[in-house]
TrEMBL record:
Key words, A-Z: Membrane, Transmembrane, Transmembrane helix
Transmembrane segments: 12-32, 44-64, 70-90, 102-120, 140-157
InterPro entries, sorted: DUF2306_membrane
Keyword Glycoprotein: no
Protein name: DUF2306 domain-containing protein
Organism whose genome encodes this protein: Jiella pelagia
Pfam families: DUF2306
Source organism superkingdom: Bacteria
Amino acid sequence: MQFSLLFGLPPVVQAHLTFALTSLVLGAVMLLRPKGDVRHKVIGRLWVALMAATALTSFFIHSMPMVGPFGPIHILSVIVLSGLVSAVRAVRRGDVAVHRKIMVRLYVVGLIIPGLFTLVPGRDLGEIVFGPLDARAQTILWLMIGLAASIVAVLYLRSAAKLTAIPLQGGRADAVPGPHG
Protein backbone atom coordinates (compact mmCIF):
# COMPACT_ATOMS: atom_id res chain seq x y z
CA MET A 1 0.00 0.00 0.00
CA GLN A 2 1.24 3.42 -0.91
CA PHE A 3 -0.42 5.76 1.59
CA SER A 4 1.74 8.66 0.43
CA LEU A 5 -0.35 8.77 -2.78
CA LEU A 6 -3.50 9.22 -0.67
CA PHE A 7 -2.22 12.52 0.69
CA GLY A 8 -1.56 13.75 -2.84
CA LEU A 9 -5.21 13.42 -3.84
CA PRO A 10 -7.42 16.53 -3.93
CA PRO A 11 -9.11 17.27 -0.56
CA VAL A 12 -12.59 16.51 -1.95
CA VAL A 13 -11.40 13.02 -3.01
CA GLN A 14 -9.86 12.46 0.43
CA ALA A 15 -13.14 13.51 2.07
CA HIS A 16 -15.13 11.28 -0.30
CA LEU A 17 -12.92 8.27 0.53
CA THR A 18 -13.19 8.98 4.25
CA PHE A 19 -17.00 9.17 4.08
CA ALA A 20 -17.23 6.04 1.90
CA LEU A 21 -14.88 3.90 4.00
CA THR A 22 -16.57 4.98 7.23
CA SER A 23 -19.96 4.17 5.67
CA LEU A 24 -18.65 0.77 4.62
CA VAL A 25 -17.57 -0.10 8.17
CA LEU A 26 -20.67 1.33 9.89
CA GLY A 27 -22.92 -0.35 7.33
CA ALA A 28 -21.37 -3.73 8.12
CA VAL A 29 -21.90 -3.07 11.83
CA MET A 30 -25.54 -2.19 11.15
CA LEU A 31 -26.12 -5.34 9.12
CA LEU A 32 -24.66 -7.58 11.82
CA ARG A 33 -26.16 -6.12 14.99
CA PRO A 34 -29.73 -6.24 16.36
CA LYS A 35 -32.21 -3.82 14.82
CA GLY A 36 -34.66 -1.34 16.27
CA ASP A 37 -32.92 -0.29 19.49
CA VAL A 38 -31.54 3.17 20.31
CA ARG A 39 -28.02 2.28 19.13
CA HIS A 40 -29.41 1.12 15.80
CA LYS A 41 -31.20 4.42 15.36
CA VAL A 42 -28.17 6.51 16.34
CA ILE A 43 -25.73 4.56 14.17
CA GLY A 44 -28.32 4.52 11.37
CA ARG A 45 -28.67 8.29 11.39
CA LEU A 46 -24.89 8.63 11.27
CA TRP A 47 -24.74 6.13 8.40
CA VAL A 48 -27.38 8.05 6.43
CA ALA A 49 -25.43 11.30 6.94
CA LEU A 50 -22.17 9.63 5.85
CA MET A 51 -23.79 8.08 2.78
CA ALA A 52 -25.30 11.44 1.84
CA ALA A 53 -21.89 13.08 2.27
CA THR A 54 -20.32 10.34 0.12
CA ALA A 55 -22.88 10.91 -2.63
CA LEU A 56 -22.70 14.70 -2.44
CA THR A 57 -18.90 14.86 -2.55
CA SER A 58 -18.95 12.70 -5.69
CA PHE A 59 -20.49 15.63 -7.58
CA PHE A 60 -17.19 17.49 -7.15
CA ILE A 61 -15.10 14.60 -8.51
CA HIS A 62 -14.90 14.50 -12.29
CA SER A 63 -12.47 11.68 -13.11
CA MET A 64 -14.67 10.02 -15.77
CA PRO A 65 -16.74 12.79 -17.42
CA MET A 66 -19.24 11.78 -20.10
CA VAL A 67 -21.86 14.53 -20.06
CA GLY A 68 -20.18 17.79 -19.17
CA PRO A 69 -18.30 17.15 -15.95
CA PHE A 70 -20.56 14.24 -14.94
CA GLY A 71 -20.17 10.51 -15.45
CA PRO A 72 -22.02 7.27 -14.62
CA ILE A 73 -21.05 7.41 -10.95
CA HIS A 74 -23.08 10.61 -10.59
CA ILE A 75 -26.23 8.74 -11.64
CA LEU A 76 -25.50 6.33 -8.82
CA SER A 77 -25.11 9.27 -6.44
CA VAL A 78 -28.59 10.53 -7.33
CA ILE A 79 -29.97 7.02 -6.81
CA VAL A 80 -28.25 6.80 -3.40
CA LEU A 81 -29.62 10.17 -2.28
CA SER A 82 -33.11 9.22 -3.44
CA GLY A 83 -32.82 5.83 -1.73
CA LEU A 84 -31.77 7.43 1.55
CA VAL A 85 -34.83 9.68 1.49
CA SER A 86 -37.09 6.73 0.64
CA ALA A 87 -35.62 4.54 3.39
CA VAL A 88 -36.02 7.22 6.05
CA ARG A 89 -39.59 7.93 4.93
CA ALA A 90 -40.39 4.20 4.99
CA VAL A 91 -39.18 3.67 8.56
CA ARG A 92 -40.96 6.82 9.76
CA ARG A 93 -44.25 5.48 8.46
CA GLY A 94 -43.52 2.11 10.09
CA ASP A 95 -42.71 0.14 6.95
CA VAL A 96 -39.66 -1.67 8.33
CA ALA A 97 -39.50 -4.24 5.51
CA VAL A 98 -39.21 -1.54 2.83
CA HIS A 99 -36.69 0.35 4.98
CA ARG A 100 -34.56 -2.78 5.40
CA LYS A 101 -34.71 -3.65 1.70
CA ILE A 102 -33.64 -0.16 0.61
CA MET A 103 -30.82 0.05 3.15
CA VAL A 104 -29.36 -3.33 2.18
CA ARG A 105 -29.55 -2.37 -1.49
CA LEU A 106 -27.86 0.96 -0.81
CA TYR A 107 -25.06 -0.81 1.03
CA VAL A 108 -24.43 -3.26 -1.81
CA VAL A 109 -25.16 -1.08 -4.85
CA GLY A 110 -23.96 2.21 -3.35
CA LEU A 111 -20.82 1.04 -1.56
CA ILE A 112 -19.59 -2.49 -2.20
CA ILE A 113 -19.88 -2.76 -5.98
CA PRO A 114 -18.63 0.78 -6.75
CA GLY A 115 -15.91 0.28 -4.14
CA LEU A 116 -14.65 -2.80 -5.96
CA PHE A 117 -14.43 -0.84 -9.20
CA THR A 118 -12.35 1.91 -7.56
CA LEU A 119 -9.63 -0.71 -7.17
CA VAL A 120 -9.16 -1.33 -10.89
CA PRO A 121 -5.79 -0.51 -12.44
CA GLY A 122 -5.42 3.12 -13.41
CA ARG A 123 -7.75 4.43 -10.69
CA ASP A 124 -6.25 6.35 -7.76
CA LEU A 125 -7.39 3.89 -5.09
CA GLY A 126 -6.13 0.95 -7.14
CA GLU A 127 -2.71 2.58 -7.31
CA ILE A 128 -2.73 3.29 -3.57
CA VAL A 129 -3.72 -0.26 -2.61
CA PHE A 130 -1.80 -2.28 -5.21
CA GLY A 131 0.92 0.08 -6.42
CA PRO A 132 2.17 -0.02 -10.02
CA LEU A 133 1.27 -3.26 -11.81
CA ASP A 134 2.56 -4.82 -15.02
CA ALA A 135 0.09 -5.78 -17.77
CA ARG A 136 -0.30 -9.39 -16.57
CA ALA A 137 -0.99 -8.33 -12.97
CA GLN A 138 -3.49 -5.72 -14.21
CA THR A 139 -5.37 -8.38 -16.19
CA ILE A 140 -5.49 -10.69 -13.16
CA LEU A 141 -6.70 -7.83 -10.96
CA TRP A 142 -9.43 -6.91 -13.48
CA LEU A 143 -10.59 -10.54 -13.52
CA MET A 144 -10.55 -10.77 -9.72
CA ILE A 145 -12.54 -7.55 -9.32
CA GLY A 146 -15.02 -8.67 -11.97
CA LEU A 147 -15.40 -12.02 -10.23
CA ALA A 148 -15.81 -10.37 -6.81
CA ALA A 149 -18.41 -7.94 -8.19
CA SER A 150 -20.27 -10.86 -9.80
CA ILE A 151 -20.27 -12.83 -6.56
CA VAL A 152 -21.53 -9.80 -4.63
CA ALA A 153 -24.23 -9.25 -7.25
CA VAL A 154 -25.39 -12.88 -7.06
CA LEU A 155 -25.44 -12.84 -3.25
CA TYR A 156 -27.29 -9.54 -3.35
CA LEU A 157 -29.90 -10.86 -5.76
CA ARG A 158 -30.41 -13.95 -3.58
CA SER A 159 -30.81 -11.85 -0.44
CA ALA A 160 -33.08 -9.39 -2.26
CA ALA A 161 -35.38 -12.30 -3.12
CA LYS A 162 -35.46 -13.28 0.57
CA LEU A 163 -36.12 -9.67 1.66
CA THR A 164 -39.05 -9.48 -0.75
CA ALA A 165 -40.59 -12.57 0.85
CA ILE A 166 -40.85 -11.13 4.39
CA PRO A 167 -44.31 -11.99 5.78
CA LEU A 168 -46.59 -9.19 6.90
CA GLN A 169 -47.84 -9.00 10.48
CA GLY A 170 -50.77 -6.76 11.24
CA GLY A 171 -50.39 -4.86 7.97
CA ARG A 172 -46.68 -4.17 8.47
CA ALA A 173 -43.62 -6.25 7.85
CA ASP A 174 -41.58 -7.11 10.94
CA ALA A 175 -43.73 -4.85 13.08
CA VAL A 176 -41.51 -3.00 15.54
CA PRO A 177 -43.22 -1.08 18.31
CA GLY A 178 -42.95 2.64 17.71
CA PRO A 179 -43.18 5.48 20.18
CA HIS A 180 -46.94 4.99 20.51
CA GLY A 181 -46.94 1.28 21.24
